[in-house]
Amino acid sequence: MKIYVDDGSTNIKLAWVEDGKVKTFMSPNSFKREWSMRFGESQGVENYEIEGEQFAYDTQAADAEVTTDTRYQYSRVNTVAIHHALHASGIKPQPVDITVTLPLSEFLTSGNTPNDANITRKKSSVKRAVDAQGATNFVVGHVNVLPESIPAGFVKLGELTEDEALLIVDLGGTTLDVSQVKGQMSGITMTYCDPKIGVSMVTDGIRDVMAGAARTRISPLTADKLLISYEGDAALLTTRIFDATQRAAVVERIKQQESVLGHRVSDALERFSGYTHVMCVGGGANIQAVIDAVKQATQVPADRFFVSGNAQYDLVLGMLNMNEEINDENAEG
Hints:
The protein is α/β, with parallel strands linked by helices and 333 residues long.
């Protein structure tokens, strides 16, 4: 079975074909060292062992392993996160072939050629055996590695002519990957990656202000939930922060960090020119301050600026589309 995996720092996104249909699944990253106590089997698989070390999936762990770092791409917790997503997806444990990604800064050398050493390292990392407590294990066979951002524009690039070019702005939890690709996927003009620009700039700020103003340590996953819902889900903020003044401080910090993130992305785009269309993907594509900053920086007409309603899945679905001939009518979430 072929599984396509966008193993980002915040979430693992899966795409696969089952019964002729494309299916997707997202699993958030929140893992701590040592196993957790289980109450029954209804919780699903949570405890894992890899190379003699134990990890547990725990959404509330304030001391969860840091995944917002490039080193995460080759870490044990990354391999565990992939296996946890496979188990949580409902796919029957079996031998699988996996396609994963690397940030452009890791996938390419300074001369814009594939970095064979990093690609080999990533393959070896993903192939490590993971034992799931109380469950049959997945066994990873062949591993393929693709660069981040570029596959996300695969479908749109097919609609452009060779005289047009798509600027793909992929803002994830850890890195900003930008690719300028010619229409019809006929060539890559330029790529850029900054491993210090990511949504973690905002979520780290949330954790800091929670630890200060609210005197509460929260997990990275909880910080991500607060970021996603702070404008539309007042109940979540109220549940986590009882004092209205403290809630206001958290919201103010979120907005400040979102603005800073937008400026950082905008500055990075100044090195690109000659593109005709722009596409925003990744978890950061849902942040309005980032969208506004990219629009301002690129100045392309509205009909040439794209943000899908499925920005989290654009990369993994692009990976699948590059390797599978599946009619779009078969796609389902």
